[in-house]
Amino acid sequence: MALKHSQYLKLSQKLLPQQILLMKLLQLPTLALEERIKEELELNPALEEDEDTLTTDEELFSNEDEGEITADEEFDDNGEIKEEEMKTSASDVEMEDYMDAEELDSYKYEVVNKGPDEETRDFVVVEGVGFQEQLEQQLGLKDINDREYTIGNYLIGCLDEDGYVRRELDLIVDDLAFNYNITTDIKEIEEALKIIQSFDPPGVGARNLQECLLIQLERKTEKTKEVVLAMDVIKNHMEEFSKKHYDKILKRLEIDNEELKDIINEITHLNPRPGNSETKESNFSAVVPDFIITVTDGIPELSINGRNMPDLKISKDYKEMLKEYAKSKEKSSKEASGFIKSKIESAGWFIEALQQRYATMSLCMKCILEYQHDYFSTGDESKLKPMILKDIASRVSLDLSTVSRMANSKYVQTPYGTFLLKTFFSESMSTDSGEEVSSREIKDILKDYVDKEDKKHPLTDDELCAKLNEKGYNIARRTVAKYREQLDIPVGRMRREV
User: Fold this and answer.
1) pLDDT above 80 (res 327)
2) Which of 247, 377, 404, 464 has the fewest CB atoms lying closer than 10 Å?
3) HSE (CB half, 13 Å, CA atoms) of 353?
């Protein structure tokens, strides 16, 4: 194949590092942004907090000090910052320069100043015994030999967060042989597992939900008629019970509805996740709103939650170091100068990205507030207008992906509650009269129908569709099913009660 030269035009588009940084920061909610800022402060020594200013929503991430360097500043060929950008203000003068060594103890001249928006809380932390440690303590109280203790301790380590042994027993046999040089079989593992299953909380060490519920029922001291029947249902009719095929259970056990109610009540009071019983409260975290909307005299007002966000600036020491290294002609000094220069530029980009994030979020949220003014003024959900990301993107002249990142995982606090921002984005649907309504309005009506239905004869998707059509909403059955799933409402059969 012959070699030849050719010319061609190629159009390509590349994202600058600053743009990538902005996109990443834009999609972070408030809590995650706090962690990101702390991480950047640790990684970049040229970036530091400006403790001389107080943080407000308007002054957030301000960078107006004359001595600070932004991402737009330029360096000359020797790596020096241009002279007009190296001027420092009076606020940059360090007190230590005019004090004797004996006077440098910080407690003699420093006071603790905190801004009005800064939250300071004292927490009392009490570290208790963990879930696995509790089981290991119970294992240590058993009259067993070292071999049985090693196998039992390994089984405790195999428990997942729900307290189940999900791993196959034959694989556990292989692990014990490989890691502990213990030759065993499935029968011995099952015997050790029975010991674990006798521990508290009841149900721990089960291999599946059926076994977990059976263990708890067998551990009950009073074997009432309901307990015995519940054991029969879990052991022999678990599939019918899980799918709520109550008619089959009534026929096979030859019991009436009242007895079935007692059985269901007995089973539903069991714990399907014994391993999570000690820590289930820790799975919930407080929601920190990113936007706060207040209503004064019927006029909604917007503010962005600063929540202890520090004012950032570029270290004056690093700027001085860059200036000194730039004067030197040594090779090592030039390498140090290049390193410091990159850190200063990175800090400037980070500060600028935070400022742009704040401006973008303000612009988009103000547009949403104007678009849904009637709702935020009154709190009446029927006044919510159909709104999609494209509506906001076209109004603020931003890319659709930028608006999507802004709305992702963000919460807005209103006088009517705190909501995920994306819940205000909804499709539009037409009524019989031709009026455009929000899909959120239809979801509220759908949920109301389900809440008021007869639980002995729950409404099917076809029946829900018919009711909405009667109300004037042109909606298909598959759309009803989609909205029901989005509302986490199970199908009619799974909502049935005896």
Assistant:
1) no
2) 247
3) 23
